[in-house]
């Protein structure tokens, strides 16, 4: 079964609220087997709109990434991000 990537591009407007989201999301993601590959850090925007915070997490499967997003724990975490940031989030299945 192929693994999956959770890819987020974020522009934060409220650091305190988004920090609470990140703390809670970390636990939710880990509980679904997610491991961070990139979380913030240096980046270079080559095309499209720049979102200065970029996050990539690997999950054991697309189903695990999907289940994480829809879990009660992640949805609770997400409530802190709403209004605190502009986000784009994609789930992408990796090649086998």
Automatic annotation (TrEMBL):
<protein>
    <recommendedName>
        <fullName>DUF1330 domain-containing protein</fullName>
    </recommendedName>
</protein>
<dbReference type="Pfam" id="PF07045">
    <property type="entry name" value="DUF1330"/>
</dbReference>
<dbReference type="InterPro" id="IPR010753">
    <property type="entry name" value="DUF1330"/>
</dbReference>
<dbReference type="InterPro" id="IPR011008">
    <property type="entry name" value="Dimeric_a/b-barrel"/>
</dbReference>
<feature type="domain" description="DUF1330">
    <location>
        <begin position="3"/>
        <end position="94"/>
    </location>
</feature>
């Amino acid at each position: 079964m192929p693994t999956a990537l959770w890819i987020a591009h974020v522009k934060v407007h409220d650091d305190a609220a988004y920090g609470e989201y990140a703390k809670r999301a970390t636990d939710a993601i880990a509980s679904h087997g997610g491991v961070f590959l990139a979380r913030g850090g240096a980046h270079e925007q080559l095309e499209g709109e720049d979102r200065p915070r970029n996050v990539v997490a690997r999950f054991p499967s697309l189903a695990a990434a999907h289940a994480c997003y829809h879990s009660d724990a992640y949805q609770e975490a997400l409530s802190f991000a709403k209004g605190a940031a502009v986000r784009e989030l994609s789930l992408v299945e990796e090649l086998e």
